[in-house]
Design brief:
Blueprint (H helix, E strand, L loop, with lengths): L33 H8 L14 H14 L5 E3 L2 H12 L5 E5 L4 H13 L3 E5 L4 H7 L4 E7 L11 H11 L2 E5 L4 H4 L2 H4 L3 E5 L13 E5 L2 H14 L5 H11 L2 H20 L4 E5 L9 H7 L7 E6 L3 H10 L4 E2 L9 E3 L11 H6 L6 E5 L5 H17 L1
Parallel strand pairs: 2-3, 2-4, 4-5, 5-6, 10-11
Antiparallel strand pairs: 1-7, 6-7, 8-9, 9-12, 11-12
The structure holds pyridoxal-5'-phosphate.
Pyridoxal-5'-phosphate (PLP) binds next to helix 3.
Cofactor: pyridoxal 5'-phosphate
Organism: Primorskyibacter flagellatus
Protein name: Cystathionine gamma-synthase
Length: 391
Amino acid sequence: MKPTLIRPGGLPPGAQHAVVTPLMPSVVYAADSPDALDAQYGGVVEGYTYAREGHPNADVLARRIDAMEGATGGLVVGSGMAAVTAVLLGLLESGDHVLGGDQLYGRSLRMLKEDLPRLGIATSQADPTDIDAMRAALRPETTLILIEVVSNPTLRVADMNGLIELAREKNILLAVDNTFTTPRAIRPLEMGADILIHSVTKLMAGHSDVTLGYVAAKDEALRRKLYDFAVTTGLTASPFDCWLAERGLMSFDLRFDRAEATAQRLADHLAGQAGVKRVLYPTRVDHPDHARAQGLLQGHGCNMVSFELDRGRDAANAFVKGADGVAFAPTLGDVGTTLSHPASSSHRSLTPALRASLGLTEGFFRVSVGLEDPAALLAVFDKGLEAARQA
Ligand SMILES: *Cc1c(COP(=O)(O)O)cnc(C)c1O
């Protein structure tokens, strides 16, 4: 047999007509000549060299999310936290102050409270539903505000218009984590935010089989900084994860609308039940931010519902066992409904007093509604409630 080269190269004719984006796990890309490579590194022509610097599957996914968010040149990174990291560590300087919302995702809060201060960046938190509290928390050295539109797990709605105005007036960057709300409900960059963050892991990819993030900035210089920081620190996303997420995105609108409709139905259903003390859903008239949600979310709600049983841990344990078929797992945005119990998981490190002030009692649950048949799902919740009442 004639010896052959290791990499003969080339795809068979017609392969370029595939309707599905090919998965390209290649780490390296060959160049035609030193001149061509020089032009590529110099940004004169586009091309790939090394996957940590960029690869086709990440770019295909990023351009799709850009289109959904009204963004330009967004970057796909290895996780939602990688996106948060790129913003906080890639853009801030020692001596800066960051103001965060007071109910941010747990790891984002930890970065504000533990990691940034270690590097000489001061941080504090305030309630983003209260514009006066946010204004009062600003300092002369505040350079960035980080918020989520709908908070976890009490589903409070930030005063987006007020915050956009405040950030503009004070010349402060406004970074918005749009994971819960998604571009289906709100497009923060189009409204006037400067930076947008996603945990693509959640609703966008939607199947709990990839961990990915996305970050976009309006300003070209900020985009360059985010890109260089992400490439330098290795926040790169895997081609296979990007490929899977692109597959998930194709059904995103349908999934969001279905989950949202079922979430509204579940919220209304739970509200009338014995043993349920309160239900939180942004578009319900009994929600504290109902009017703001109507104005901001273009008639949408979200796929999340929170509710509180009127009893303690025993009832909570019984509820989870009784609601058989709903995964008790602290994630969100999956095709299947998941249930989380903040007092024993995401918020267990809070002092009991702080938990109480947020209303996160032992009976408090957060539901991420999936794509099940709505009637079948309500029946499972009824079983859980029945078990809780018997406990
Ligand atoms: C999950 C989540 C993150 C972190 O995303 P990962 O992909 O898990 O790193 C950040 N913000 C919000 C609001 C989240 O729900």
